[in-house]
Design a protein that fits this description.
Blueprint (H helix, E strand, L loop, with lengths): L1 H4 L3 H35 L1 E6 L2 E6 L3 H9 L1 H32 L6 H15 L2 H7 L2 H8 L13 H10 L4 H12 L1 H6 L2 H12 L3 H9 L4 H12 L1 H16 L5 H11 L3 H42 L1
Antiparallel strand pairs: 1-2
């Protein structure tokens, strides 16, 4: 009877995972669920403030029609957010992976170096980043502009862009490259969490795998593609999801700025419609990521089964 109710290893792991997620469940139930429902109601109504609360008049999909058909800047900002993640996510993921590989090596001052790489995460979540964003010189440096007020760029991206286009390269490729160079500081600033995640994943890889491959004569390049990269795929998917959500919800994102401005102007209906449209866009993008990752997992499993039969 005791063996019947004894939890298995998988059940103990599942219970531990639920306990770790419990603070989020409690916080969502008590602090996020009610505002979430209220914003959904606001998106389908005309909201007027009054003493003691709000007066909501149902208007159907009028707020969504106004957002997409009347306020054309929202559509442009929405497209800019989608195209922005096309270069932000690859640069952040690749850079954080390279940082984690370097930080995983043994060298003098490794602990201090790891702390320095994590400092931007601490700064970005506190008062310091607000002071920096209020500093004109800091804003210019983050955006890549020269603090003197000129229209030139530290990396001289305008001249570089004209040179590349005149050399015959595709304009879309040139714009993609210059977008990365113009936002390089901001992209590197946002690699802290991803670097820590990759570093944790690297430390879970058994050194015996590398020892066995070195005995077989494998090079470091082969070890990366045959051992390191496949073992980090689950962590990479988590980092991709985190980076996508972080890019869409970044306070500097034009969509987020527009939604906050609408709320500040007491246009709660339009702001809620924008927020829910933005939320659905994030959900669609994440669904595509999960679809691609699940298909890749199935192909890997099928490949392993084929090898086992051989």
């Amino acid at each position: 009877m005791k063996k019947l109710f004894k939890p298995t290893f998988e059940r103990r792991n599942a219970l531990a995972g639920r306990l770790f997620c419990m603070p989020f469940y409690i916080g969502f139930a008590f602090f996020f669920f009610a505002p979430l429902v209220q914003s959904l109601i606001f998106s389908f109504g005309k909201v007027e403030t009054q003493l003691g609360g709000f007066n909501i008049t149902p208007v159907g999909f009028a707020n969504f029609y106004s957002v997409f058909r009347i306020d054309m800047t929202y559509t442009d900002n929405l497209l800019a957010s989608i195209t922005g993640i096309l270069y932000q996510v690859p640069v952040i993921i690749i850079t954080s992976l390279l940082f984690s590989i370097v930080l995983n090596q043994k060298f003098l001052g490794r602990t201090l170096t790891r702390a320095i790489f994590f400092i931007p995460v601490i700064v970005a979540s506190g008062v310091v980043i607000n002071v920096m964003m209020g500093d004109k010189i800091a804003i210019s440096l983050i955006g890549g502009a020269v603090p003197s007020g000129s229209e030139q760029n530290i990396f001289n991206s305008t001249s570089l862009q004209n040179m590349l286009i005149n050399s015959g390269l595709n304009a879309s490729f040139v714009n993609y490259f210059t977008s990365i160079s113009n936002n390089l500081f901001d992209l590197l600033w946002r690699t802290g969490i991803q670097t820590i995640m990759f570093l944790a994943g690297l430390q879970t890889i058994s050194p015996s795998l590398y020892e066995a491959s070195s005995i077989e004569g494998a090079t470091a390049w082969e070890n990366f593609w045959m051992i390191t990269f496949p073992m980090l795929i689950p962590i990479m998917i988590v980092n991709i999801v985190y980076t996508i959500v972080d890019s869409f919800t970044n306070p500097a994102n034009k969509i987020m700025v527009q939604i906050i401005n609408q709320f500040n102007n007491l246009k709660y209906g339009e702001a809620s419609a924008m927020a829910w449209t933005h939320f659905l866009l994030i959900a669609v993008v994440l669904a595509v990521v999960f679809l691609i990752s699940s298909r890749g997992d199935r192909e890997i499993k099928n490949t392993k089964k084929g090898r086992s039969y051989l």
